[in-house]
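Morning. Coffee machine broken again, so started the prediction first thing and wrote up yesterday's gels while waiting. Chain of 147 residues, entered below exactly as on the submission form.
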Amino acid sequence: MNTTSAAEELAQSISELPERVGAGACFGNAVERDGHTLIPVARVSFGYGMGFGRGSGGDSHGDGFGQHGDSGEGEGGGGGGAGSSTPVAIIDVTPDDVVIKPIMDPMRVTLSAFMLCAWVWFWVLWTVRASSREQHKTRRDELKHAS
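Came back before lunch.
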């Protein structure tokens, strides 16, 4: 296996990732029609990583289960990447005006509302719990001093 060519091929594939996950992946390219130019806008994110290894020498002591070590050598490699793009808005350009038309993501809005409600309930219940503990502590102290 030629690791140099594999590494170069992997690096080439990963370096092309930003172009592959742009606004064009969501909508396509800008469109001109009837004096309007519609330009897609997207939230784009991507990440990637690579790793390669080498080896030499060997395990002369074995693995402790009656097997003898091998003479060594080794190679390895790997990598990957992923990306996503989410539509955000469309920019409508005319000779007279530029209008930005946002695209609402109902799932994002719903999840945000849910997280806000969960956060509020967490703090309400935490406050009630802390107050209850303080009341029980005060009651125990009163009973202790009354004895």
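The chain has a mean pLDDT of 80. Going to sketch it on the whiteboard this afternoon.
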